[in-house]
Description:
Layout (H helix, E strand, L loop, with lengths): L13 E11 L3 E7 L13 E5 L5 E5 L10 E6 L5 H10 L8 E8 L13 E7 L3 H13 L6 E7 L8 H10 L3 E7 L9 E2 L2 H8 L6 E7 L1 H15 L6 E5 L15 E7 L5 E7 L4 H7 L17 E4 L1 H4 L7 H9 L7 E3 L12 E4 L6
Parallel strand pairs: 7-8, 7-11, 8-9, 9-10, 11-12, 13-17
Antiparallel strand pairs: 1-2, 1-6, 2-5, 3-4, 3-6, 13-14, 15-16, 15-17
Helix pairs in contact: 4-5
Amino acid sequence: MTSLKPPGQIAGQRTVAIHHIERLGSDAVMLQLGIPDGTALSYEAGQFIAIHLPCGATRCYSMAHRQQAGAPLEFHIRLQPQGVFSQWLVDALNDAKVLGRTLSISGPYGDCTWRPLQSSADMTILLGGGTGIAPLTALLEEGLAQETRGPITLYWGGRQPNDFYCAAYFEALARRHQNFRFVPVVDTQDTRWKGRRGFVQDGAADDFPNLTKANVYACGSPIMVSSARQKLITQCGLDPDRFYADAFEPSVSIRDDARSSPRLRVQLQLADGSERIVQVAAGTSLMSALRAEGLMQGICGGQKSCGSCRIETDAAWSAHLPPPDRIETRLLAALSDPRPADRLACQIHLTPALDGLRIAIPDRPL
Ligand code: FES
């Protein structure tokens, strides 16, 4: 079995050791990682970390529990057909010697974290699909630990009954906390299932037609997150500022068609003060182009949730860029030492009009 050694080139990375691994349901794996020197990784419920593979690829996974002293980090990982890391995990499931082997991680990242309710009677809705249940579990634990009194409802979407691999945990929580309700939802016609059917966002909209006094968290595929945002805001009156999301793709990659696109020049000021001009492909995001040059991590793949693509724009070029949307603005403000010229490179689409764009890559911690 190939050892996944740290690549040794990612800023802020640390080494962790495999503590436990087991299969979850039909196509997911639980991976627990311990920090060998015993120091804790400080994170907020709902955040994620990046695991760096020796081939240079990065995979992002959310912690599946709120932080607990001395506990290993736990992740729920959907197995992807022909995925590099998925194959490694499948091999690891059958390798008794895998425990104790090391991996390299960086983070934490993400701002889909627990937010105080405006009123103690306000409700909380948690929407998750598949292994998107992991960050929602951490958020739920955080909400209950903070003795949230308003109703909390968790909708977990799956394709078949055995996708709900930790349903017993939520059912036990529901017995202990009167304000918590767990609603598993199957989105196929599987005849073995006798419970709710449909999509999680539809279930929430049907159950709660008025969400004007609610916080909503959605974790899962970009399609589910985008549909939930649109539906709950327009149909149920949810305040857009109270919709918190972590959308994730199975993996991140650079579009193949970028290689044949016209080339643009981007003038860079690097963190050490040096200057450089790079030729990048039009039609991609600035983050993808700079990541291809090895100048940026782009941990979340452009989902506006990590901040690892923060840049500073040159004043003369700022007016040529479309303004940041609400989510980008919120993430930039949540990063450390925010500045007015900050932007997310993943939200800048490279068009021929941006030939000669001048930016700086800051050396500021996230
Ligand atoms: S790549 Fe994560 S916010 Fe831009």
